[in-house]
Design brief:
Blueprint (H helix, E strand, L loop, with lengths): L15 H4 L12 H18 L17 H15 L4 H6 L1 H16 L4 E9 L2 E3 L4 H10 L10 E5 L5 E3 L2 H4 L6 H6 L2 E3 L7 E8 L2 H6 L9
Antiparallel strand pairs: 1-2, 1-3, 1-6, 3-4, 4-5
Helix pairs in contact: 3-5
């Protein structure tokens, strides 16, 4: 199978976390947290099946967003992004998120999963491309300099979300606190008017289609 060919079969022996995605789910109410976890696992499984080598991800029953961690994370973002204009952060959001990931992992001493997908808020699907369109990009590539309607953020093993660029990409849709902090650090069930929808996990998709520019002090 070529690297751009859509998978046509499933391996016979799947890891437990992957195999669960293909079993019939029991009918039970889903919390916001459960929905995010399910979509994240499906996105990671998709990346595995497309050969994009997503990083290992082990959920942890802890929370990282303490007042101290949020403040230290804000200082890190200010240090890394303070010289960048808002429009540059928005345009280079894929590279910015990759840069923040390295800083965050060093600060919290935990892995953060680079996550790609779309955001739903105020009745709008923001940065949304159907998964079929994204898979087509993997098969055929994209034109040099083409814009891709896709958002990037980080997912911690607690499934907490760290989004360092939404405030710059959609300044009119983020609250004053998020804009002032130049980022968001919350658990999915704490998000009231906004939901995140993972489609890929890991940097593999962004690197494969060529939209991930490394941070070099733009």
């Amino acid at each position: 199978m070529s690297q751009f060919q859509s998978p046509t079969y499933m391996p016979l022996h799947l890891p437990n976390w992957l195999g669960r995605l293909f079993k019939k789910a029991k009918h039970s109410p889903e919390t916001a947290t459960g929905v995010y976890e399910a979509k994240f696992d499906a996105a990671r499984a998709r990346a595995v099946l497309w050969g994009l080598n997503p990083p290992r991800f082990e959920p942890l029953p802890v929370r990282f967003a303490s007042a101290e961690a949020i403040e230290s994370t804000r200082r890190l973002r200010d240090y890394g992004l303070g010289r960048l204009r808002e429009d540059v952060i928005a345009a280079q959001r894929f590279g910015v998120v990759a840069m923040v990931r390295g800083m965050l992992e060093a600060q919290l001493r935990v892995r953060a999963a680079y996550t790609l997908g779309y955001v739903y808020q105020d009745g709008q699907q923001l940065c949304h491309t159907p998964i079929e369109g994204l898979e087509q990009m993997l098969r055929t590539g994209i034109a040099p300099g083409a814009r891709v309607s896709l958002h990037a953020w980080l997912t911690l093993p607690s499934y907490e979300i760290v989004d360092p660029t939404f405030w710059a990409v959609f300044p009119a849709l983020c609250g004053a606190a998020e804009h002032e902090a130049r980022g968001l650090f919350l658990h999915p069930h704490e998000l009231i008017e906004r939901t995140y929808h993972p489609q890929w996990v890991g940097e593999g998709f962004a690197r494969r289609i060529g939209i991930l520019k490394e941070y070099e002090g733009w």
